[in-house]
Amino acid sequence: MNNRTSEIFEILSKGNFICSNAVDNQQRYLYTYLEEHFDDLEPKFREIGFQLEEGNNYYYFSRFNESNPNVESKIEKALRWLDILAFFTTFRKDLCRGARFKPLDILNQVEINLPMKEQLQNLRKKTVAGKNYQEMLTDLLKEMQKEGFIDLENELEQTWKILDSWDYLEKMVTAVNIQDENEANANPAQNSGN
């Protein structure tokens, strides 16, 4: 593997994304490299058990066969992502790839919006005494940045940018909604109140 391929593997094997609209120049370069060399890289990664997947302006890895504990862990992570997406869409319904936001705007909404306040409290991974809303939000933003869904675009102004990988979260919600609709259609007697 060359250096770029190793760097791509290092990022994607941790469950992160490489996005076309990343703030970091190197990430955007790796995206372009993946785009240009996908046909060469995909079989190499498949040989070592990783499936290189292409999303809507982002790349990620999936696995062919995973152990049950790994699958359970991914399901828990996906459920958390859905809760996080719900929090952000409660803040602003129009948040999408490329959108920008400031934590101060979110904190102002948390102060006056009880559902957002409750969602933020529920998103805390562990109950930590003394955590205020700003600290909880900072932890959440760091988590989302580490996962590869947002980037700090301007540190001075505290402006965050939503990356193309946000599409992954939105597709997950769509998949859940389609599954719910399919289950509802499969059981018409339950839906009619009988």
Can you tag this structure with a few keywords?
single chain, 194 residues, alpha+beta, Arc Repressor Mutant, subunit A, three-stranded antiparallel sheet, 8 helices, 6 strands, globular
Account of the protein in words:
The protein is of the alpha+beta class and 194 residues long. The protein has two domains: 3-63; 68-169, Arc Repressor Mutant, subunit A (Orthogonal Bundle). It has eight helices and six strands. It has helices spanning 3-12, 25-47, 68-91, 103-112, 114-123, 133-147, 166-186, 188-191, and strands at 18-19, 50-54, 58-63, 100-101, 150-154, 159-162. Strands 1-3-2 form a three-stranded antiparallel β-sheet. A three-stranded antiparallel β-sheet has the order 4-6-5. A hairpin with a 3-residue loop joins strand 2 (50-54) and strand 3. Helix 3 (68-91) packs antiparallel against helix 5 (114-123). The chain is globular and about 50 Å long. The termini are far apart. The relative contact order is 0.13. The model has no long low-confidence stretch (mean pLDDT 87). InterPro entries: MksE (IPR053841). It holds the Pfam family MksE.
Give a quick rundown of the structure.
With 194 residues, this protein is an alpha+beta fold. It is 60% helix and 12% strand.
Q: From the coordinates shown, what is the CATH architecture of the largest domain?
A: Orthogonal Bundle
Number of domains: 2
Total count of strands: 6
Largest sheet entry: 3 strands, antiparallel
Structural class: alpha+beta
Helix content: 55-70%
Strand content: 5-15%
By CATH reckoning, the class of the largest domain would read: Mainly Alpha
Write down the secondary-structure element order.
Answer: HEHEEHEHHHEEHH
End-to-end distance: 61 Å
Low-confidence stretches: none
Number of helices: 8
Shape: globular
Pfam families: MksE
